[in-house]
Amino acid sequence: MASETGEIVPELRAAVSWIDSRVATLILGSCLIVGVGGLVQVSFGTYTMSILDAWRAVFDPAVWTNPQYPLRLLLGDGLGTRTAELLGFSTSEVELGRETLIVWGIRLPRVLVAMMVGTNLAISGAVFQAVTRNELASPFILGVSAGAGLAILLTLVVFTGLASFLPLIAAGGGAIAFGLVYAIAWKGGTNPVRLVLAGVIVSTVFNSLQTGLFFFTDDLGVVQSAISWTTGSLTGVDWEQVRIALPWTLATVPITLAGARQLNVLLLGERTARSLGMSVERVRFLLSGVAVLAAGTAIAVAGIVSFVGLIVPHMVRQLVGSDYKRVVLGSAFAGPALVVVADVGARLAIPGTQLPVGIVTGLVGGPYFLYLMRRTEVGQL
User: Are 80 and 73 in contact (CB under 8 A)?
Assistant: First the structure.
């Protein structure tokens, strides 16, 4: 037994040897930002409480000693109760204080959705930047967000019975948009300029179609909800959105980490990748599919939150280097930090008004995109 343990420990150390001090610092710093931002977020609302009261509500022993309560929130009442019974947990009603009910029932889901949106958009942008070998690529720039947005608006306005399949529908719309971008940009190959220009073209067309859809509904509430959704908003999200996004997030992050080695090879160029035995188009197609699914998941629950997929991977590369194992893992933690902070800013910027989080990320991301364009040498394009 001791010899087996002695053999396993070196293997585990080798498996995580790429997690150096820079990555660890980024992860810890991002977690700290998310924690502080989340506490600020759950403190504000119609019923205001102090940061200390919010802390007590989040870590209320009445919740943590009754696992059936968070299980019901995460899985829904029916499935959560049955799961609790199967695991041998009590299913009797839990008596909770007012602050705990407000935090866990209403405010905490917004923080969790913001985290998952940040993670999915960040890793999606990281993958797109690798498969296109273009540091200006992102779901927003390449038209994926517009395609996913159009698909979801069609579902909300026309095919309302398919609402439970929003992540897959969004991924399908994003995949169609990305396919169009690639087809338009292809001319015996692609280059960064043509991909960006093709993304602008597809985004413009799809955004126009989104606007046109508003004229096909007489329900003013649907129109107002759709307009808010197209700007990227976390207002009103609840545990249903958490349940929609969580399984897809748990799938896309490990798959992207597993594909990090292939992303590193793709960055060496197609000729080098083929000489190393890689099926370039197949790998590019599969990893792009994961990136589209990640972006579609984020868009399905929060709308079009712009520029996160552009900003985060680039900043992470500056902090931890270009190895895509580090970039993907760092993006998975830095993305939530950015979106949570942006959502706090969206809530507190104008007293009495909640701005869509997409407006805040756009105000930050627009100048950063301009900075990236100016620092990119013409020869690299």
Answer: yes
**Cα angle: 316, vertex 321, 322; to 5 degrees:** 95
Residue 6: the pLDDT is: 52
pTM as predicted:
0.87
- Spell out a b/e string for 162-199, using b for 16 or more CB atoms within 10 Å of the CB, else e: eeeebbbbbbbbbbbbbbbbbebbeeeebebebbbebb
In the structure encoding, which two tokens stand for residue 21, read together?
A: 């001090």
* Entry field: residues in the chain: 381
Name the 3-class secondary structure at 266. Answer: helix
Nearest CA-CA partner of 209 in 240, 254, 173? 173
pLDDT by residue (tens digit) across 114-138? Answer: 999 999 999 999 999 998 888 878 8
CA distance 249 to 164: 16
Contact 173, 135 (CB under 8 A): no
Non-local CB neighbours of 329 within 8 Å, separated by 6+ positions: 19, 23, 27, 257
DSSP state of 205: H
Task: Provide the token pair at 189.
Answer: 């190959």
Taking only the tens place, the pLDDT of each residue in 14-34 is: 556 677 889 999 999 999 999
